[in-house]
Design goal:
Length: 164
């Protein structure tokens, strides 16, 4: 839908979510950032639902949930650990209904949300926020799933208000 440059947007610009892993590169002393997935949609509810699903997916890949996996209960043993339990924290965040409502209100209010979960050798960052007017993805690149970008007759904004 086309809108004039001096009027309000004809449709909401949408929401962008991404999941990033960051960890050391063996033998180099450097760190690498890897985008595990991106999602763009017109709904903050769908963006947060996708992000929660990604949190569960990552948790299950790191360490299968013994409560849900038929084979894990027979093979996996609980141990006393002093390290953070990243899969359990990801699952807890994904299942927190009150936290999800607060996150939805935050994102609907135009404020991005970013949470990071540290594992022994990697950190996973889940981010969601509004797409700035103009319809460009906040971190560059095209979304892999979700709704197509909205169209406007105005040039994309620069500077203030861009989600960096």
């Amino acid at each position: 839908m086309i809108r004039p440059c001096d009027g309000p947007p004809a449709e909401p610009p949408g929401y962008w979510a991404e999941v990033v892993a960051r960890g050391p590169v063996c033998g180099t002393g450097e760190s690498a950032r890897h985008v595990l997935g991106t999602f763009r949609t017109l709904s903050p509810v769908l963006a947060l639902r996708w992000l929660r699903g990604q949190a569960r997916r990552i948790a299950d890949r790191i360490d299968p949930d013994p409560a849900r996996s038929e084979w894990a209960g027979r093979v996996v043993r609980a141990t006393a650990r002093s390290e953070p339990d990243c899969p359990a924290e990801l699952r807890r965040w994904a299942g927190d209904a009150a936290g999800e409502r607060a996150a939805r209100e935050r994102v609907k209010g135009g404020r991005p949300l970013s949470v990071t979960f540290a594992d022994l050798d990697c950190a996973y960052t889940l981010t969601v926020g509004p797409v700035p007017p103009g319809g460009t993805a906040p971190r560059g690149g095209a979304p892999r799933t979700g709704a197509p970008p909205s169209r406007t007759a105005c040039p994309p904004p620069t500077g203030e208000g861009a989600w960096a």
